């Protein structure tokens, strides 16, 4: 079975490897007090609160994030949630796995950068070795969304999906170990999905794989799984 990657050019942030999620403390994920509203209906108030001009690119990004979170329609077999705190993320993961306790039932995987640069570098990457599959019964993927404070879109998929690790070398010599998720059944995806545009086929016509480009994107897996 062939696996199609829609990330032909990786845009990776070169950062030192993390030993904890990209929010080492709850406050780093929370980003805003509980009194700050998080709803599309409150967009005008949020724009004033964060001094964001209406119609600006940042305002449009905020609106897009709020729309996705207010109308987070999952595809078949998917469970989704937007989280604005570390605790709410862990609660979501616990609910998926039916486990309790950070470090006592599940752990996270993310992309690792083996260099000391903190500069965003646009470069082509070459695969160094074969995909190394991580067998998983369940997983939860979380992605940082565009907002003035940290908001993560987390989702869990059931059905045909596979998780891999892959080593890459950038054209400037940077070594990256990245996470790859492959979706084998794309029949329920929207026809306008960006991956279909990149690969030139439609829903259900083939599997799609994507890289996790930086440490603001990560996967929670049961800690009993060997990686």
From TrEMBL:
Domain spans labelled BURP: 1-223
Record keywords: Signal
Signal peptide interval: 1-19
Coiled-coil ranges from the UniProt annotation: none
InterPro entries: BURP, BURP_dom
Pfam families listed in its UniProt record: BURP
Taxonomic superkingdom: Eukaryota
UniProt keyword Signal present: yes
Name the UniProt record assigns to this protein: BURP domain-containing protein
Species of provenance: Cannabis sativa (Hemp)
